[in-house]
Amino acid sequence: MPNTAKLTVFYDGACPVCEREISFYRRRRGAERISWIDVSRARGTEIAPGLSREQALARFHVRDAEGRLVSGGEAFASLWAALPGFRVVGRVFQARPLVWVLNHGYTLFLRVRPRLQAFARARQPSARGAFPPWLVRELRSDHAGETGAIAIYRGILAVSRSATLRTFASAHLKTEQDHLALIETILPARSRSALLPLWRLAGFLTGAMPALFGGRAVFATIAAVETFVDRHYAAQVDRLSREGSHAEVRSLLERCRQDEARHRDEARQACDGSPGAFARAWCRMVGAGSAVAVAIARHI
Ligand SMILES: [Fe+2]
Ligand SMILES: [Fe+2]
Predict the structure, then answer these.
(1) Can you give the pTM of this predicted structure?
(2) Looking at residues 125-137, what average pLDDT do you find?
(3) Cα 199 to Cα 179: distance, rounded to the nearest angstrom
(4) Which class is 128-297 in CATH?
(5) Which of 51, 112, 250, 273 would be a feasible disulfide site paired with 240, CB 3.0-4.6 Å?
């Protein structure tokens, strides 16, 4: 049968880091139109014309519909551009200066990959204890998200002198601290993201930067973040409801989701008038950035 896939992805399924990353993308909408080749299971020295097994195990490769073979960061940008939920991020990173940044990031990743593999393997048995691996990954992303949310409100409070904004941020900060404490009761320290300092920094900037521009920019940012977080929790609650398992976790996540939906509605109401083109672009970037952060925090 001819291969009608738009894109062919060559990945190392024996690497726990790569395997987790790819299984995340394989569950996304549009993944059925992509051909996924686990190079570690492939036989022979040549995986595809112009691509040896050795090359494919050393670097992530993608072949596009025109037969063009790309690797590293550029290959990730092509994969994202082929998935509807990541298309905007993929197109942004396919632009020249950013693809260069992505390629350098990928080279850095390759340097630390052996350590990440050892780390991921060491965590696998313990993560299987109380919850299924998918739920541990989701809770890790929730814990990282709440850590980032606290930092967002701290960023606003560090910059803004507006009484309205400070009251808004202080009230939300308290709720986010409660959420983090709740998640810490069910997610042991060893299962939390190894990148918490990064999520704190990203959160702080996400709050502090719009605060420099005033209330409308902050409210639009919070509305964008909380819209994303509401959907993120809703997907987890839906899956737990369908599976009829871990009722206590489901009710904890549903409680957080309801608070996030309330935060979103408060921010939307406070945002008088429709946001300008710059604010809309910033909010799209915040939404896309949140999606990428969650994808990473699930695994690291
Ligand atoms: Fe929260
Ligand atoms: Fe929130």
Answers:
(1) 0.56
(2) 70
(3) 16
(4) mainly alpha
(5) 250
